[in-house]
Specification:
Blueprint (H helix, E strand, L loop, with lengths): L2 H13 L5 H8 L2 E5 L28 H11 L3 E7 L28 H11 L3 E6 L14 H15 L5 E4 L17 H11 L4 E4 L5 E2 L14 E3 L5 H7 L22 H4 L5 E3 L2 E6 L17 H11 L4 E6 L10 H17 L6 E5 L9 H5 L23 E20 L7 E10 L2 E8 L6 E21 L5 E8 L9 H16 L3
Parallel strand pairs: 1-2, 1-10, 2-3, 3-4, 4-5, 6-9, 9-10
Antiparallel strand pairs: 7-8, 11-12, 12-15, 12-16, 13-14, 13-15
Bound molecules: beta-L-fucopyranose.
Length: 512
C-alpha cells in the first residue's frame, strides 16, 4: 500500500470517531460550576484525614438558593457538588456510614445538603451533578475488598434519591500512601456500569470515559485542543497517576497530562486506536478548593475569569469553575461580586451578533443551506446532524466570505464544527476587509465543538473572509457568527505570555 493510500485510510479512521450522546450534551452546556463545601470548610482545611468531629459542621445561614442564583447569573449551566470529599464526610443522609451530616448539629442531624442543593437547582433550571471522592480516609473498608461495594452503595443512594444527576465526577487524587495505607485498586469498570445502568444520561468525568481532565488546576487550556485522541492517552490509570498525591502539592502547572499536542495528524500517526474525548478545565475562583477566610482578597479578577472563559469554553474545552461557600453556608460577597461581573461580561461580549447580508463560499454539498450557519439568529438547540455547511468538493482550501450590512467594530468570531461528522478543521485564518484588500486578524488550528476566535484588537470592517487551509477531507461547519466588540478584551496573565514567547522561541530554534 503506498503512503498516500495509507494516509487516506488513517484520515478516514480519525473522522469516523464522533461524540456519544452524553458527550454531546456536556459539550453544548460547556460551562459548569464546582462547589467544594463540607467538613473541611469548618476547619479551614483543604484535605482532612477523616477524624474531624461531625459536630463542627454547623453552618448558620446555609442558603443553597443563593448559590444557585449567583452561579446561574454567572452563566453556569449546572453545578457539581462535593457530596463526599477525601475525608469521607457525607453531605447527605446516607445509610452507609455514621460519618455524615446526620451526626452534625445542622438541622439537628436532619439536614441533607445534597437534597437542598438538588432541589434549588431544579427550581432554577440548573443541572445538578455530584463529586464522590473514591479516596475515602474515614471508611473502615478503604483498602479492602469490601470498599467497592461500599462505594457502589453510596453511588446508588445518590443516583436514585435526588432526581436527575447530570454528571458524576470521579477524582483521581489519592494520598493513601502518605497515610501509611495501601492504595485501593478501584473497580472503575464496575462504577461506570452502575452509573450507566441507574442513570444513562449521566456524564462520567475526570477518571471516567466521557470527559478528560485537561491536566492542571491552573485554568490553562491548550491552544489547540483535539477531540480525537489516542485511546492510550485517556483512562483512569493515566488520570490517577497525574492527579494530586499529597496535600499542598502544586497543581498549578501549565497544561500537562501528556502534553500540548494530543491529536494533530503528526501526533496520531503513531497510534492505532482512537476515542472522542473533550477536555475539561477545572479551576477554582480562589487559591483553595475549599473556603478560607484569609483568601477573601485573593478571588480571581474578572479579567482573569474572562480570559479563562475564552480559552476554555472558547477553546473547544469545558469549563468547571469552583466556587466554595463560606462557613455561614453562603457564597461570600467577595466571590459574588466577581461572579455577577463575570455574567455581565459574558452577556455583553455576545450581545450583538453582526447581521450577514451576503455570503460567498464553495457550493454546499446538500441543498442551499449555507445561510443557516452564518445568520445571527442561530439557535444552538435546534441543530441536528443535518444542520451544516459542507463544500460539495474536497479541495486544498476553502474560502467563506461574509458581508455585513455596514462596517462594524468586530472583535470575535464564534466557529462551531458539526461534530456529528467528527473534528476536521486543522488550520484556518480570518481576514477582515480593509482599504480595498484583506488583512489577517486571526489564525488558528482547531475549531471542534466551540471556538471563540478572539482578535488581538477589534477591527472595523464590513466583510470577513474565513480561509480553511488544512482539514481532514472537508469541513462540516455548524456555525460562524461574528460579534460586535463590547471593547473589553481580556489580557493573558503575564505567566502565560512568557511561556508562550518561550515556546515560540524554542520552536523557531528547533525549526518547527
Ligand atoms: C483534587 C483534590 O485533591 C482537590 O482537593 C480538589 O477536590 C480537586 C478538584 O481535585 O484532585
Amino acid at each position: 500500500m503506498d503512503d498516500a493510500v495509507r494516509n487516506d485510510d488513517r484520515i478516514k479512521t480519525y473522522i469516523s470517531v464522533v461524540p456519544s450522546r452524553v458527550q454531546k450534551s456536556i459539550q453544548r452546556d460547556n460551562f459548569n460550576a464546582f462547589i467544594h463545601y463540607g467538613i473541611n470548610t469548618f476547619a479551614d482545611k483543604e484535605w482532612s484525614d477523616g477524624t474531624l468531629p461531625p459536630e463542627i459542621f454547623d453552618p448558620s445561614e446555609q442558603d443553597t438558593e443563593q448559590w444557585v442564583k449567583v452561579l446561574k447569573y454567572a452563566g453556569a449551566k449546572g453545578i457539581i457538588f462535593t457530596a463526599k470529599h477525601h475525608d469521607g464526610f457525607c453531605m447527605w443522609q446516607t445509610k452507609t456510614t455514621e460519618y455524615s451530616v446526620k451526626n452534625s448539629p445542622y438541622k439537628n442531624g436532619k439536614g441533607d445538603v445534597v437534597k437542598e442543593l438538588s432541589e434549588s437547582c431544579r427550581k432554577h433550571g440548573m443541572k445538578f451533578g455530584i463529586y464522590l471522592s473514591p479516596w475515602d480516609r474515614n471508611s473502615e473498608y478503604y483498602g479492602t475488598d469490601k470498599y467497592d461495594d461500599f462505594y457502589c452503595e453510596q453511588l446508588t443512594e445518590l443516583l436514585t434519591g435526588y432526581g436527575e444527576i447530570f454528571c458524576v465526577w470521579l477524582d483521581g487524587a489519592c494520598g493513601a500512601e502518605s497515610d501509611g495505607k495501601k492504595k485501593q485498586e478501584y473497580d472503575f469498570e464496575r462504577y461506570y456500569a452502575l452509573i450507566r445502568k441507574l442513570s444513562p444520561n449521566t456524564v462520567i468525568s475526570n477518571c471516567g470515559p466521557d470527559v478528560r481532565w485537561v491536566g492542571n488546576e491552573a485554568g490553562c487550556a491548550r491552544e489547540s485542543e483535539w477531540n480525537v485522541i489516542p485511546k492510550l492517552n485517556v483512562g483512569a490509570q493515566v488520570i490517577m497517576a497525574a492527579s494530586q498525591q499529597s496535600e499542598g502539592q502544586n497543581m498549578r502547572r501549565p497544561v500537562d497530562i501528556l502534553g500540548e499536542d494530543l491529536g494533530s495528524r503528526e501526533f496520531l500517526k503513531d497510534y492505532d486506536e482512537f476515542v472522542w474525548s473533550p477536555a475539561e478545565v477545572d479551576v477554582s475562583i480562589r487559591p483553595g478548593w475549599f473556603y478560607h477566610k484569609n483568601q477573601d482578597f485573593r478571588v480571581r479578577s474578572v479579567n482573569n475569569l474572562m480570559y479563562i472563559y475564552y480559552t476554555s469554553v472558547g477553546g473547544n474545552s469545558l469549563l468547571l469553575l469552583n466556587v466554595p461557600p463560606d462557613r455561614q453556608g453562603r457564597i461570600n460577597d467577595a466571590d459574588v461580586d466577581k461572579l455577577v461581573k463575570l455574567g455581565d461580561r459574558i452577556r455583553s461580549a455576545f450581545a450583538t451578533p453582526v447581521d450577514v447580508v451576503s455570503i460567498e463560499a464553495p457550493p454546499h454539498e446538500a441543498s442551499n443551506k449555507i445561510r443557516n450557519v452564518l445568520v445571527s439568529s442561530y439557535n444552538k438547540n435546534s441543530f441536528d446532524a443535518n444542520s451544516f455547511y459542507s463544500p460539495a468538493e474536497i479541495a486544498d482550501s476553502y474560502e467563506i466570505i461574509m458581508r455585513f450590512k455596514e462596517a462594524t467594530l468586530i472583535d470575535k468570531v464564534q466557529l462551531v464544527e458539526n461534530v456529528a461528522y467528527s473534528q476536521r478543521v486543522e488550520k484556518y485564518s480570518i481576514y477582515a476587509a480593509h482599504k480595498g484588500g484583506y488583512v489577517k486578524v486571526y489564525d488558528g488550528t482547531t475549531i471542534g465543538f466551540n471556538r471563540i476566535a478572539l482578535f488581538r484588537k477589534p477591527v472595523k470592517t464590513d466583510s470577513l473572509k474565513i480561509v480553511i487551509e488544512e482539514c481532514r477531507e472537508k469541513p462540516y461547519i455548524e456555525r460562524i457568527t461574528a460579534y460586535a466588540s463590547d471593547k473589553y478584551i481580556p489580557r493573558a496573565p503575564i505567566k502565560v505570555v512568557i511561556s508562550r514567547v518561550l515556546r515560540r522561541a524554542r520552536s523557531r530554534r528547533s525549526g518547527k
